[in-house]
């Protein structure tokens, strides 16, 4: 939050400084479209760091708001209200948009045992916030970064010499899940035999996924199966019905569309 304010306010809000320091104001924030509300803590922290304003919410985190609905009202220093506006709304509109995207995909999985996962394809500097929004929208988090999970991809396999060698090296990090991205049923079998925890089926066809799930179920020590690559709202349900455990979709954080919000200001007595 401090970084977001610093990049916008810098050494000071030159425009807000034109307003007498003692003037008080009121403002209302509305949404122009139906949305899941996400980002309340980020808005509150924005105003807390700037000080001089009191917020009153008409909605709670995770609620669905209708078009033209008032989300919250605020009262306080006119300078604070105007300086905080852009940073606060940036968080609220982006995180609400992320939650909307996650919800649209997660809703397609209702009635299945499959779970929607996000990826590391997030806006730089906002990964924690976007992954939080994914959870608000009904999705689940994949690894946060390179530090809390191992995902062995094609180049890692090439560098290590084989899937078995890469997994063996990874298993030295006790307690850290080891995932292998596979591009064929042969590689899936290698990942199973090597003792990986998760196999990511990269751009498999539906028939290939079904066969992969069957191969895994027949194994002595089956692992979890994740599907990834080119998944959209039209295909996700059929993919879930192949029996995979997880579906990861980078677009819920990478292609997010911010929600249209508006703040209306007026002077207070």
Radius of gyration: 23 Å
- Main sheet: strands, sense, barrel: 6 strands, parallel
Percent helix range: 25-40%
- The residue-averaged pLDDT reads 96
Question: How would you describe what is shown here?
Answer:
- There is one protein chain.
- This protein has 269 residues and is of the alpha/beta class.
- 39% of the residues lie in helices and 21% in strands.
- The chain contains ten helices and twelve strands.
- It has helices spanning 2-9, 40-50, 78-106, 127-136, 154-160, 163-170, 185-194, 206-218, 236-240, 251-254; strands at 24-31, 35-36, 53-57, 64-65, 70-77, 115-117, 150-152, 178-182, 198-202, 224-228, 246-248, 261-267.
- The strands form three sheets. The chain has a six-stranded parallel beta sheet with strand order 6-11-10-9-8-7. Strands 3-5-1-12 form a four-stranded antiparallel beta sheet, covered by helices on one side. The chain has a two-stranded antiparallel ribbon with strand order 2-4.
- α9 (236-240) links the parallel β10 (224-228) and β11 (246-248).
- α1 (2-9) packs across α3 (78-106), α6 (163-170) runs parallel beside α7 and α7 runs parallel beside α8.
- It is elongated, with a radius of gyration of 23 Å.
- The mean pLDDT is 96.
How are the secondary structure elements laid out?
Elements: H1 2-9, E1 24-31, E2 35-36, H2 40-50, E3 53-57, E4 64-65, E5 70-77, H3 78-106, E6 115-117, H4 127-136, E7 150-152, H5 154-160, H6 163-170, E8 178-182, H7 185-194, E9 198-202, H8 206-218, E10 224-228, H9 236-240, E11 246-248, H10 251-254, E12 261-267
Parallel strand pairs: 6-11, 7-8, 8-9, 9-10, 10-11
Antiparallel strand pairs: 1-5, 1-12, 2-4, 3-5
Helix pairs in contact: 1-3, 2-3, 3-4, 6-7, 7-8
